[in-house]
Amino acid sequence: MPINVAIVEDETAVRSSLESILKRSPDCRCVGTFGSGEEAVVGVPALKPAVVLMDINLPGIDGVECVRQLSVLLPGTYFLMLTVHEDPDSIFNSLAAGASGYLLKPVRSAELLAAVKDVFAGGAPMTSNIARKVVQSFKRAKQTNADSENLSPREVEVLDYLAKGYSYKEVADAMKISYGTVHTHIERIYKKLHVQSRAQAVARYLKV
């Protein structure tokens, strides 16, 4: 039985190329193609594909959010990301959302078909560059864990509120401290965790 595959890709030429690769393989069958995350969220569940090829950089609902929504609706479906992004945040956001594999564009026909078969069999296919990024990120996580141990109890409390989505003013109200004191804590958190934004600080905090 061929593996039923759906494609979510906004670029027409790329979408057609992926569909053509699948159609030439006796082991795969393209059951549907979608040009946006919005279309995919509506259309993919009815097809119940075994594997979904998902682009990250989609207009509107991006690929990560699309996978997050579809993985709830289709718990038995495997999601394989196809993207030009190889930064660690994109990789981990995709995997955290429910993706099982991560390939960089452009991808060769043989590599794509092998990845589809691999992910369908329960594997986690990744290009060598991506695999290295994952290993490097885990190594950095050890350093981040050490950095987080240097945070004071109050700084950890501030970071915990930020992770829950509190605004700076709400953090100040909850902790009964001034807005300026919250900013001071945050500046120290950034320095200790070696980050430059709230999103990075929260991401580091949640990973350790």
What does this structure look like?
- There is one protein chain.
- The protein has two domains: 3-133, Rossmann fold, CATH 3.40.50.2300; 150-207, Arc Repressor Mutant, subunit A (Orthogonal Bundle), CATH 1.10.10.
- The protein is 58% helix and 13% strand.
- The protein has helices at residues 12-23, 37-47, 63-73, 88-97, 109-120, 128-148, 153-163, 168-175, 179-193, 198-207, and strands at residues 3-8, 28-34, 51-55, 78-83, 101-104.
- The chain has a five-stranded parallel beta sheet with strand order 2-1-3-4-5, sandwiched between helices.
- Helix 3 packs parallel to helix 4, helix 7 (153-163) crosses helix 9 (179-193) and helix 8 crosses helix 9.
- The protein is elongated, with a radius of gyration of 20 Å.
- The chain starts with a strand and ends with a helix.
- The mean pLDDT is 84.
Give me the secondary-structure topology:
Blueprint: E1 3-8, H1 12-23, E2 28-34, H2 37-47, E3 51-55, H3 63-73, E4 78-83, H4 88-97, E5 101-104, H5 109-120, H6 128-148, H7 153-163, H8 168-175, H9 179-193, H10 198-207
Parallel strand pairs: 1-2, 1-3, 3-4, 4-5
Quick overview:
This protein is α/β, with parallel strands linked by helices and 208 residues long. The protein contains 10 helices and 5 strands. It folds into 2 domains: 3-133, Response regulator (Rossmann fold, 3-Layer(aba) Sandwich), CATH 3.40.50.2300; 150-207, Winged helix-like DNA-binding domain superfamily/Winged helix DNA-binding domain (Arc Repressor Mutant, subunit A), CATH 1.10.10.
